[in-house]
Specification:
The complex is a heterodimer of chains A (283) and B (475).
Chain A lengths: L2 H8 L3 E4 L7 H7 L1 H15 L9 H20 L10 H28 L1 H4 L8 H27 L11 H25 L3 H15 L14 H4 L3 H13 L8 H25 L3 H4 L1
Helix pairs in contact in A: 3-7, 4-5, 4-7, 5-7, 5-8, 5-9, 5-11, 7-8, 8-11, 8-12, 11-12
Chain B lengths: L5 H11 L14 H17 L2 E15 L10 H21 L13 E15 L3 E5 L6 H8 L7 E6 L3 E4 L12 H11 L4 H15 L14 H13 L5 E4 L8 H16 L3 E5 L3 H7 L2 E6 L2 E7 H10 L22 E7 L8 E3 L2 E9 L5 E11 L4 E6 L7 E3 L4 E10 L4 E11 L2 E15 L30
Parallel strand pairs in B: 3-7, 3-8, 5-6, 6-7, 11-18
Antiparallel strand pairs in B: 1-2, 1-4, 8-9, 10-12, 12-16, 13-14, 13-15, 13-17, 17-18
Classes of the chains: A mainly alpha (283), B alpha/beta (475).
Chain lengths: 283, 475
């Protein structure tokens, strides 16, 4: 063999040993980076196949939820909006990250099971599967962002410089969706009980998180505790960025939420990596 | 690969396969052995042609049994059991369900080693055939080598990109079109988008589905589906190709096409690991073989030797036909053994097309009977190809001993290459004594029957006759 060729294959040498962590995992993740895209692309293509209005479903769901929430919390319950912001805009600023979180949690917790045929027949870093479903939900998030723009035009609401911080908070939302998603996806492989727990978490979370109302109405002494819910931080910062700072940021709360998010994300990756080798055997 | 160096490297590979290479766990502090290990690792990387090295690989599964219950089931016991098992389950969740610490075995659990102590080397450009009965561990081995599951013990090293094809059409989505699935499946098999783009036309041409590229694959016929799936897999460029019994599907022509493609891969210096029950294909494609039996390596070496061992397995004393489950019910077990041989081949059960075949039947408990034997050869699709009856040949054997052996010699068995099975019936005059379906398997392999090494395709007929072509002078 040519020496050159030797060096070429040398870089691809693979050693698998029982009970030892794979060194090439993160390299593999990079090699398979296009699979993120392809899995997300597949899910998006498949989701709206054989539907009449197709992608419009991604708009209708958050729009209707926003209308109902605005009516119930804003009109019937007469909860206060954030400063001068229209209630609908305020609700929708929270609706965007919340929908993203709830769909990615639901999708990623089921993702491994619905891709069982792939997992038992072919190798790739398994992390791609739940991450791919978070990316899929992110596309919906972007679509609802368009709706947000329409809503702002409708209410003549012009955001200020704070909107430039939004990408940072999107990253936070991503992490907040990813951490629990990884935990639930990994647990769901062995304990299918989680299939019943996830819808419950999502349903309850909608009322526990400040989606239909402003987190200002939570009594001051409970706010730190309330911020243990990572979505509180995400939603508050989204509102802060989109509503011209009509909500003042409650820093201890935001930091707590970020801390919880980072913890969930790191432990999620750790746990997922620990158990992913056994997925093919037990799925 | 330069052939001149192969003699030298063979010598080297002999040195390297000394047992001192194997490194037991926890021997790091033993620096002498560590040095040997490092040297051999260096050797593996730079000097040898070995691309796959498997060492003491083992895979354990834990299987559950139902516990022995009392004669009657009391609700109280059920509740107690449930509570206990619930508590145990909760405890396992708390402790981490996948923890590696030794588990206190409940009597209902048992360890099952699907693989144990598997070791072999594969050199660059070699094709290794993996042979074994169902449950011998072939698929588990391929799953470990293609990194789908991890081994419980041992280790393996591989050099180069791996493409594994354990199932045709993994990752195909029925809702997506052929075009979309080519990209998706290619990405799953590890191809980049640019690479798929380059290979796209070749893939479509190989599958022959140009017209249906934009049809969802759920509307494809199963043949088209399989063709497309194999076409994608066949165009993955990898140094190592792992193929499970995927050729069992599809028609004969397609199978041939796939085998040709795999042969092509093997000839271009790629390393192929191939599992099949088709001995003809294995013999044609592979040089090396591993024969697995109950999770261990029974033989490792030249493929012919492995095939011979595998097929001769039928003749072991435990496999006597006397307690065969495919015997028609209510009949006395008379037929005890069948042996099909051909003078040209060493292995029983393999007949070259057009070669001489001897069918030998050993009978038990037939004293004082007039024995007549009839047998039918079926092809793999269950078609009756030909029938032999000692009654038609007016051969009636008067068995006067307890054991009796009959043989039937066929001068030229002109069956197209493929797998066949034989049903055998034994009569006493007109009365049926014994009948075993699929009593023995038979494999007809390629031969030089027609004088030029070619044979008609198995898809076009069942039998082959020697013949001669000429231009006729008169019409």
């Amino acid at each position: 063999m040519q020496l050159q060729q030797k060096f070429a294959v040398l870089s691809q040498e693979l050693i698998i040993e029982a009970g030892r962590a794979e060194r090439q995992y993160w390299r593999d993740l990079w090699t398979y980076r296009e699979l993120f895209y392809f899995l997300a692309w597949r899910d998006i293509l498949v989701r709206y196949k054989q539907t009449v209005i197709g992608i419009a479903w991604a708009l209708i769901r958050p729009l209707l939820t926003m209308l109902v929430f605005t009516f119930i919390f804003g009109r019937l319950a007469k909860l206060p909006p954030d400063g001068s912001a229209p209630y609908a805009v305020m609700v929708f600023a929270a609706m965007m990250p919340w929908q993203f979180f709830s769909t990615s949690l639901t999708e990623s917790s089921n993702s491994l099971i619905s891709n069982a045929n792939l997992i038992s027949k072919i190798y790739f870093p398994r992390l791609i599967v739940p991450a791919g479903s978070v990316i899929t939900s992110f596309v919906d998030f972007l679509i609802s962002g368009v709706l947000m723009v329409v809503l702002m035009v409708w209410y003549h609401w012009v955001p200020d410089w704070r909107i430039l911080c939004l990408p940072l908070f999107v990253v936070l939302a991503f992490a907040a969706a990813m951490g629990p998603g990884l935990w639930l996806a990994a647990l769901n492989v062995k304990f299918r009980d989680f299939r019943y727990i996830v819808p419950f978490i999502v349903q309850l979370g909608l009322y526990v998180s400040p989606v239909g109302f402003s987190s200002r109405i939570v009594p001051e002494k409970w706010r730190l505790l309330y911020s243990l819910n990572p979505m509180v931080g995400v939603i508050d910062s989204f509102r802060w960025a989109l509503l011209r700072g009509e909500t003042t940021l409650y820093w201890p709360g935001i930091l707590t939420s970020i801390l919880v998010t980072v913890l969930l994300c790191a432990s999620g990756i750790w746990y997922f990596r620990r158990v992913e080798k056994t997925f093919a055997d037990i799925i | 690969m330069a052939s001149g160096t192969s003699a030298a490297s063979k010598k080297l590979s002999l040195i390297s396969s000394e047992p001192c290479y194997y490194k037991p766990h926890g021997s790091k502090r033993w620096s002498g052995l560590g040095l040997v290990f490092q040297l051999s690792a260096f050797y593996f990387l730079f000097l040898s042609e070995v691309v796959i090295r498997v060492e003491n690989l083992g895979k354990r599964y834990r299987i559950q049994h139902r516990q022995q219950r009392q004669r009657y089931v009391a609700l109280r016991d059920v509740l107690a059991d449930q509570t206990k098992s619930m508590a145990r389950r909760l405890w396992s969740v708390v402790r981490g369900p996948w923890s590696r610490s030794p588990v206190v075995h409940s009597p209902s659990q048992e360890d099952f080693w699907a693989l144990r102590d598997i070791s072999f080397d594969v050199k660059q450009g070699d094709s290794l055939g993996i042979i074994g009965r169902n449950g011998a561990g072939k698929s588990t081995l391929l799953k470990i080598l293609s990194r789908i599951t991890v081994p419980t013990e041992g280790r393996f090293r591989m050099r180069g990109r791996i493409a594994s094809l354990l199932e045709v059409g993994t990752g195909f989505h029925p809702e997506l079109t052929g075009r979309e699935n080519i990209f998706l499946n290619g990405a799953i098999l590890g191809m980049s988008r640019a690479e798929i783009g380059r290979q796209f036309d070749a893939i479509v041409a190989f599958a022959g589905i140009e017209k249906f590229l934009d049809t969802p694959v759920k509307r494809y016929s199963s043949g088209m589906y399989i063709r497309l799936a194999f076409a994608v897999a066949a165009h993955v460029h990898s140094e190592i190709l792992i193929v499970d019994e995927v050729l069992a599907v599809g028609d004969v022509q397609f199978q041939k096409k796939c085998l040709d493609k795999m042969g092509e891969a093997a000839h271009t210096g790629r390393t192929v690991l191939f599992v099949s029950h088709n001995m003809g294909a294995l013999a044609a494609l592979c040089q090396q073989g591993v024969l697995l039996e109950a999770g261990t390596v029974r033989a490792y070496g030249a493929i012919q030797e492995c095939i011979r061992l595998y097929l001769s397995h039928d003749e072991r004393p435990g496999d006597s036909l006397l307690d065969n489950c495919r015997r028609s019910p209510g009949l006395k077990a008379v037929l005890s053994r069948i042996r099909v041989t051909s003078p040209g081949t060493q292995a029983p059960g393999i007949i070259p097309c057009g070669g001489m075949a001897e069918f030998r039947f050993v009978l038990h408990n037939v004293a004082d009977r007039t024995v007549r034997i009839a047998f039918t050869i079926y092809n793999c699709l269950g078609v009756r190809v030909c029938h032999f009856d000692s009654g038609i040949a007016s051969f009636l054997a008067n068995a006067d001993l307890h054991h009796h052996c009959l043989s039937c010699e066929v001068t030229a068995l002109g069956l197209v290459p493929g797998n066949y099975s034989i049903n055998v019936a034994v009569y006493d005059g007109m009365a049926l004594l014994d009948h075993v379906s699929e009593a023995v398997d038979l494999q007809v392999v390629d031969s030089n029957y027609l004088g030029n090494g070619k044979l008609p395709d198995a898809a076009n007929g069942l039998v082959v006759f020697p013949h001669r072509w000429a231009s006729a002078a008169k019409i």
